[in-house]
Backbone:
């Protein structure tokens, strides 16, 4: 590392809780405390998409991550659920329930087709991703 900062992104982000770069190095995923995650084009230095539906307020540090082969975005939530979005459309695909507290972060392992999530309930959960099974949007009944 040269120690030289080449660009600072501060475009109405508010308090940032995590940042992740995709495998291509072309996009950043930025989680903020305004209940949204943002996909940024690194080269063009502009926001591409915003992902909403989870809870990330001033009390916690909820993180977002890229999903398998970067097709999905996933995030924890203060609601105790894991949220999955379509990276291209921003559409909410699924919410995974099971944690008993704030879900702080998620991480994918594409080789094992597993998603791991951690929460303040003192648990780490692993979720199996099966491409043959359709993802669905849960109804808000």
Residues:
């Amino acid at each position: 590392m040269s120690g030289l900062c080449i660009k600072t992104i501060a475009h109405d982000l508010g308090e940032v809780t995590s940042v992740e770069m995709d495998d291509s190095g072309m996009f950043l995923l930025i989680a903020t405390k305004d209940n949204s995650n943002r996909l940024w084009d690194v080269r063009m230095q502009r926001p591409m998409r915003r992902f909403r539906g989870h809870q990330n307020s001033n009390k916690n540090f909820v993180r977002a991550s890229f999903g398998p082969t970067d097709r999905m975005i996933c995030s924890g939530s203060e609601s105790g659920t894991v949220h999955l979005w379509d990276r291209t459309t921003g559409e909410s695909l699924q919410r995974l329930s099971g944690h008993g507290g704030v879900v702080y972060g998620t991480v994918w392992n594409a080789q094992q087709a597993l998603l791991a999530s951690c929460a303040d309930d003192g648990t780490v959960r692993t979720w199996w991703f099966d491409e043959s099974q359709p993802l669905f949007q849960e109804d808000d009944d």
Confidence is low (pLDDT under 50) at residues 137-141.
